Amino acid sequence: MSEDREELRARLLALEKAVDGLQRDLLQLRAGFTRGAPVQAPPAPQPVIEAEPAPQRPPPAAVKPRRLDLETLVGRYGMLALATLLALAAVGTFVGWAIAHGLLGPVPRVVLGLAAAAGIAVFGVRLRSRERSFGDSLLGLSLAIVHVCAWQAGPALHLVPPFAALALSATASVALGGFALLQEDELLWCVGFGGAAVAPFVTSSGQGTAPMLAAYAAAVLIAGGSALGSRPWIIASRIYGAAAALFTVAIVALPERQHSAELAVGLPFAAAGLGVLPFAHGKVVRPRLRTLGLLAAAAALYAAAAPVVPHFTGALAAALAGVAWLALLELVDCEPAGTVLDGFGEAGAGMAEWIDGAAVPAAFLLALSIALEMSGYADRAFGLAAPLLVLSVSRRSPGPLRDALGLPAFCAAIAAVLLATRPHHEVAAAAMAGTSLLFMFLERAVPNRTWQWAPQIALALAGLYALELVTVRPRYQYVPFLTGASAAALAVAVCCGLAASLTRTSAAIAGAGIFAFLWVNQELAWAVSPATSTLLLVTWYAATGVGCVAFGRARSARKIRHAGLGLGIIAALLALKAAWGLPSTAARISAYLVVSAFLLGIAWWYRKPGAQPGAEPGAEQSP
Questions:
Q1: What integer pLDDT is reported at residue 155 of this predicted model?
Q2: pLDDT, tens digit, for every residue of 209-256?
Q3: Which residue intervals of 396-449 are DSSP H helices?
Q4: In 36-95, where do the E strands start and end?
Q5: CA dist 480 to 409, 445, 570, Å?
Q6: What stretches of 475-584 show up as alpha helix (H) in DSSP?
Q7: How far apart are CA 500 and CA 548, in angstroms?
Q8: What residues does 344 pair with on adjacent strands?
Q9: Which of 207-216, 278-287, 407-416 has the lowest mean pLDDT?
């Protein structure tokens, strides 16, 4: 026990000594700070070397949903469709047996059918929360049963008026479509809208009229278009376009005394103005309008060509439809072009713009011309359409749509002048060339590609027309350059020259020169008499050859020089031919001398120093 005390005392003494030492050290440190003892600076921090960032991995590509194989399609949808079909067959067989045995009358049949449709619909709504595809199938089946019941109650059994049966069918379809919109279910909406579209045909008793069908179709299309809005539903867009086509064809097929053709033309525009424009925006609006515009154009062509439709009626429908289409383009030209048709065709914006600006307006112009051809007012109609289209072109921003609209505008102007000058061929050729030149000037104010190439083609056609006119004149019975055909050719030549100076392209310049040469050639070919025409032709070829060589030397144009040499050879051959064909010795001598003089001039140019084909004009070479 005493040993433990001694050890504890020793430890306490050691601890006291250690504490005393720590106190002395602390006092020394405080005294050093108070005297201003230098404090050593902390060591410089070591430079931090940042590690290079690890290379970033590219984000993983979006995994495309795996397409269903044939087995899955057959198992999931094929079996479901067959099961539904067999269920309907069973119900139909039972109903047929009950009717055959007098167990079900007309009214109980319809009531039981509607009750079954309601029960299936309720079960389908509850099933959608677990199995959406099966629930949608049951809802579609219930709608089909409602359509069958409406057909039984209306056209088949005459229990209710046809319009009541139609109202029942349409109400059920609209209700299903509204439910689909609330659930954002595209396929279910297609079922509801499709049911509303086929309802008038299911419940038809054959006594409907075109105005009734058009009114119902307008209501369905306006409601469907407003419901779709800007939703990117591809299948629904296709169903909408198919329904519009179905209604248009069905209305056209009705008797014309009910104004079916006019109603068919107006229906797409009613749907476009009231159901599409106020609700659709972005990349879906123009494809939808384009589809409706093509349907209206087809209906306008039918109205213009149908023998039972009055010409004035068809022309008025086509004209109003064309103006309405330009108004639609005015409202939506800032929207993207979208697909070619509503839900179809990813062909790029160019093709879609050309359908909007060229195909649809051209179809309305064609319908207008067909309708007015017999009445003789087509030239006036085209004369009014051309400035309207030019105004529409000027209001579009540069791009494919302006280029597309430029084509029907130019064609309308050309058609107007050709129809107005039909009895006078010479005036027609000159007017065609003048109109082409006018559009070349308009292209300076409203730049577009169409007015660069289309007037050139029309000017070439006008040149061919003028050459034909100077060719078909009676041979050796006219004085060259003094006939109406000569005046027309002169007008075309002036237009070609102005076009060449305006465009300054090699093709336009070459075209103007070729036309001028051919025109003079045809003027001299059968002028006055055989001797006179031969002498004039020989002189013309020789003079033209000399001119081409001179121009080619001045511009260092090898091809033009070669053309001049070729013309000189042709002139010599013509002179030799004249020796055998001309009865007059003086004429033969004159032909020889004229050609000889011109050819000697060409030879002298080629003998002069510095006149070699590859030399620049005026460059001297040593002998």
A1: 72
A2: 889 889 889 988 998 998 888 888 898 999 999 999 999 999 999 888
A3: 400-420, 425-445
A4: none
A5: 37, 39, 21
A6: 484-503, 506-525, 530-555, 558-581
A7: 18
A8: 341
A9: 207-216
